[in-house]
Amino acid sequence: MIQDRQLLQLINPAIEVIVHFIGQPLSAGTCAFESELLREIERNQSGLDLFRADGLFKNREYHTLEKHAVYKLYSAAHGTELTFTLDKWRGMPAAVVLMLNTAITKQGNFWSLRKFLNNAAKSIFAIGISAIVGDAQANGHPVRHKPDFRRERTRDGTPKLVRLYEYLGFSRMKGNNMALTAENFTRAVGSKRHNKTVKAG
Q1: Dist. CA 113–CA 75, nearest whole Å
Q2: How many angstroms separate the CA atoms of 153 and 140, rounded?
Q3: Of 93, 115, 99, 112, the residue nearest 181 (C-alpha)
Q4: In DSSP terms, which residues pair with 121 in a beta bridge?
Q5: What distance in Å separates the CA atoms of residue 94 and residue 182, rounded to the nearest whole number?
Q6: In this predicted model, what pLDDT tens digit does every residue of 56-82 receive, in sequence order?
Q7: Which domains does the chain have, with CATH numbers?
Q8: If we measure between CA atoms, which residue out of 59, 67, 53 comes closest to residue 99?
Q9: Which of 25, 102, 107, 154 has its CA 20 to 30 A from that of 32?
Q10: Is 76 helix (H, G, I), strand (E, B) or coil?
Q11: Which letter, b or e, does each residue of 147-181 get, where b requires 16 or more Cβ atoms within 10 Å of its Cβ?
């Protein structure tokens, strides 16, 4: 049995969420989103597992607690997990990333991380989600190599974690907010396929 407790923080620092992932991955959906996402994962044969839990969201400004579904896509092959909730972003349905984490034994492989994110994004976008958004900030999980690059900056002052997300296809919005839209993802994937076709010809 998988047991996973996480304390996560949303893009808005005034909102916190506590979520517990306990048990096995979903084999069937309890709503349209889950059923469609499971079908896409199976169709793509990406090897992703989907977990669901109820997240307890705390809004410091209004001192209220709300319960919302929180999801985790996990790949044993890549040792990586993407935890997110569903919300609106610029009026569009979006997957709001609460945390992206790779097991310490699997860290250091950019191509593996990109493959995982491409698999996750492909399935998420295929069912009508318009964007994957989040805040590029270090979480509490350990890193394999010291010092922790996530808290360092490039020569031009850009946080290295932001630059990593940019290399992964995300666009920097305000501050350290990052966004990957379905439109940009589809365009990038189409461009890669076109380049392969040209080279093969």
Answers
A1: 10
A2: 18
A3: 93
A4: none
A5: 10
A6: 887 767 778 888 899 999 999 999 999
A7: 3-196 (3.40.630)
A8: 53
A9: 102
A10: coil
A11: eeebeeeeeeeebebbbbbeebbbebeeebbbbbb
Using the structure block, give the residue that is written with the tokens 């569903």: 86
User: Is residue 23 classed as helix, strand or coil in its secondary structure?
Assistant: coil
Do residues 176 and 135 lie in contact, with contact meaning Cβ atoms separated by under 8 Å?
A: yes
Tokens at residue 158, please?
């850009």
Dig out the tokens for 36 from the structure.
């469609």
How far is it, in rounded angstroms, from Cα 21 to Cα 42?
A: 22
Nearest partner of 16 among 71, 85, 72, 78, judged by Cα: 85
User: CA angle at residue 192 from 187 to 195, to 5 degrees?
Assistant: 125
Amino acid, single-letter form, for residue 122: K
Calculate the CA dihedral of residues 37, 41, 47, 50 and round it to 10 degrees. 10
Max alpha carbon distance in the chain (Å)? 62
- Give the predicted TM-score (pTM) of the model: 0.78
Contact (Cβ atoms closer than 8 angstroms) between residue 115 and residue 102? no
What is the DSSP-derived secondary structure letter of residue 26? P
Choice among 19-23, 37-41, 106-110, 111-115 with the minimum mean pLDDT: 19-23
